[in-house]
Specification:
Layout: E1 10-14, H1 22-32, E2 36-41, H2 43-46, H3 50-58, E3 61-64, H4 70-84, E4 88-93, H5 99-102, H6 112-135, E5 139-149, H7 163-185, E6 188-194, H8 208-218, H9 226-237, E7 248-251, H10 262-268, H11 274-281
Parallel strand pairs: 1-2, 1-4, 2-3, 4-5, 5-6, 6-7
Helix pairs in contact: 1-3, 1-9, 4-6, 6-7, 8-10
């Protein structure tokens, strides 16, 4: 149901890859709520071609930008303001990539050059986006920036690898830059820590199905879908959340607060006492 929450607002959405991506759902919902926006992704992602179908559907322009390159970001903001006819009101940062994960390297055997790439793409890029926007005065007062995170920033997920460090850094940048952007321009910056979600990128992480099933067993409301995450992002872009900033906001059906659940005990726990017996004998 559309409520015109973003009527008259302009935005930039990073990271829409295909119909499974959260950024794709955010773009669809933003259009429904009256926003106009630019879609952007890295040149290699644009070659996949799906984003142009989304652009046609939402009446949007696509501007190629490598989120790690300040020159690309400066061009993105300048061209977006020309196309949209003014400053930006909202930004979605839905960007993450780990060469270590892609190549299946164990966490204890990381390639550090790859790790630096992980941090640059998945976390430092948020700082570059915010710094570029501030330098260009590209975001209106009371604008909103949302970056997508995951609870591996706080907890250990054995196969999430260096993406855990990237998400922790991402959340820290949102807090630190959020203070400065709020003081100077009344711009708010938040991260949304989403449930494990059936996206193309998410399913590339080893053990993803186990992450998904476990979280679904633990969460009293179950896992949040990409469409539900999009709804939440829309509220954070809207004027209804003007005083929310520098927060890491869990959107996970209650998973982040849980210790153990009845469902996990009754339906999902497969050890059935064998682990206890084994530990006693070790």
């Amino acid at each position: 149901m559309a409520n015109n929450l973003l009527k008259g607002k302009k935005g930039i959405i990073f990271g829409a890859l295909d119909e499974n991506s959260i950024a794709w759902k955010v773009a669809e919902r933003a259009k429904e709520e009256g926003a106009v926006f630019v879609l952007t992704n890295a040149p290699v992602a644009l070659r996949k071609g799906d984003i142009f179908r989304l652009a046609e559907k939402t009446g949007s322009e696509v501007i190629s930008a490598d989120v790690t390159q300040v020159d690309d970001l400066e061009n993105l903001f300048n061209e977006s303001m020309k196309l949209l006819g003014g400053k930006i009101d909202f930004i979605l940062h839905s960007v993450g990539m780990s060469p270590n994960v892609r190549k299946g390297l164990h966490y204890t055997e990381l390639d550090y050059n790859y790790m630096m790439k992980t941090l640059d793409v998945s976390a430092i890029s948020l700082h570059k986006v915010l710094q570029t926007a501030l330098n260009l005065d590209a975001i209106n007062e009371w604008g909103s920036v949302v970056a997508l995170s995951y609870i591996a920033a706080q907890r250990t997920f054995s196969s999430y690898s260096d993406m855990a460090q990237a998400k922790a850094m991402l959340e820290s940048i949102a807090r630190s830059f959020g203070y400065h952007y709020g003081k100077r321009k009344k711009v708010r910056v938040n991260t949304v820590s989403q449930s494990p979600t059936m996206t193309t990128a998410g399913q590339g992480v080893g053990g993803f199905n186990a992450f998904y099933t476990y979280a679904n067993c633990m969460s009293p409301l179950g896992n949040a879908t990409s469409a539900q995450c999009a709804d939440y992002c829309i509220t954070l872009f809207s004027d209804l959340t003007k005083m929310v900033t520098m927060q890491n906001l869990y959107h996970d059906g209650g998973y982040s607060t849980m210790g153990i659940s009845d469902k996990l005990i009754e339906d999902c726990f497969v050890c059935q006492g064998d682990c206890h017996d084994k530990n006693d004998n070790d």
